[in-house]
């Protein structure tokens, strides 16, 4: 696995995954939608405009660059998807099955991340086991469950190497997320540095699993490189780092910015989504099958986030 196409390279994960993998010696083609220009820091390697729905064009890109692995980060996140279920299904399911068909034909490995959104209110929330009930009530979650099942199906039936991770909310300072339920955990750092205060759209009791981006990047590469012989699960692994409530992240920020003020302006649409999601993920399977270990604690992440955000405001 050395020649990688990252679809969604300009997004929150992609904009950091592409340089992370290039630094580690992979040839990475940065695939962007064409709606947003290629971020300048991705211009030191090959790039393509990619439409996930156009499998013929995708096939030509795969051939041109002799791609062996596709990491598909195209997705409409949970909150936005609720307003456009058909678009969420098109990208999240039709796009993914098209890619799996191409993978079957061209012997590609495929990684399409799943999410804590693949669980629902009937799932045990603390901890949420690896193998458990998955009846999500959001269209985003529904597409993620379908993707997990499709990955297993193409693996069992056609031998496609499809793997995935169930990401918690991801926190980073390079590219903002957009339209997710966990976005507040990024915004809070920017507002803390800019204004010293933040109004949380999720209530004080809302505990969600989260992860700092460097751990998510490492997890992506580690699961992609894991020895298939040692894996029992493929689609998709729970991966955890830490969980917190808005009060707890505020406390972490106050260690560096003592005057930071947290208030609440709860958004019922976001709260309803968060209330059906896990509070704490059990990631034993990832730990046992491919040696997953997070590096960053909440406080360690906060220290980096505040320092990096301060350089950028
Ligand atoms: C979202 O909030 O929609 C995403 C996710 C947890 O998948 N960050």
UniProtKB/TrEMBL annotation:
Single Gene Ontology BP annotation: L-threonine catabolic process
Gene3D superfamilies in the cross-refs: NAD(P)-binding Rossmann-like Domain
Residue span(s) of domain NAD-dependent epimerase/dehydratase: 4-235
InterPro entries from the UniProt entry: Epimerase_deHydtase, NAD(P)-bd_dom_sf, NAD(P)_epim/dehydratase
GO MF assignments: L-threonine 3-dehydrogenase activity
Domain of life: Bacteria
SUPFAM superfamilies assigned to the protein according to its UniProt record, in alphabetical order: NAD(P)-binding Rossmann-fold domains
Stated family: Belongs to the NAD(P)-dependent epimerase/dehydratase family.
Protein name: NAD dependent epimerase/dehydratase family protein
Species, as recorded: Sutterella parvirubra YIT 11816
